[in-house]
Write a structure and sequence with these properties.
The chain has 244 residues and is mainly alpha-helical. It has eleven helices and two strands; from the N terminus they run E-E-H-H-H-H-H-H-H-H-H-H-H. The protein is elongated, with a radius of gyration of 23 Å.
Length: 244
Amino acid sequence: MPRRVVTTVPSPPRTKRRTTRIRQSIDIDMKAKRRFQARLLTWYRRYGRDLPWRKTFDPYKILVSEVMLQQTQVDRVIPKYHEFLERYPSFQHLAEALTEDVKKTWYPLGYNIRPLRLHSIACETMARYGGTLPKAPEELLSFKGIGRYTAGAIRSFAFNEDAPILDTNVMRVLYRIFLGAGDPKTLKNTLWQLSEALIPKGKGYDFNQALMDFGAMVCNARDPYCLLCPMKSFCKTYPFEPKR
């Protein structure tokens, strides 16, 4: 019986897909990354909100806006932002004010620990830095009342650095589009890494503002506009179905 000859045909080389790897084994497809960056910035140029704190690079004014926006809707913050800055236009003015007066000016935004922390930051900025807020992340994080998000926002919006941010809106956008599985609350470290990895070099300011607007206006919590979303072709949760 003749011996059977097996001829092995080599498989064609597999084309490697370029990815950006971050910890916890999350790979970002480079094409999806570039599409996301380009589409988000294009969307922002057309639909981005006209907000008063986007007309300044003053670290003090950026800080005031960021603290006010914690747990408070934008439309409630805008008039109070103008009123607060008219009364306390600088770190020095705020540091010299009585805390009771600061709380009265803050009313009715609520969460009244915020004006006290803002006043404390002003006093510390005057005492330690001569009224100039530092931009080094470790120095910003040394202030009581400045956490990781606020430090990133100040670095990005006041000092034009490519610093990552992760608030509720940003977390929701990145989780839905790039992860789509697991509990977002347990994936915060991964989402922080994702936020940083996605920033186009030199465009951190616009990119971060765009992320927040996109989360507020398109990829919102309860009723996202999936059919109109420019990311739907590669979104991990499209079409989004809210939990009943």
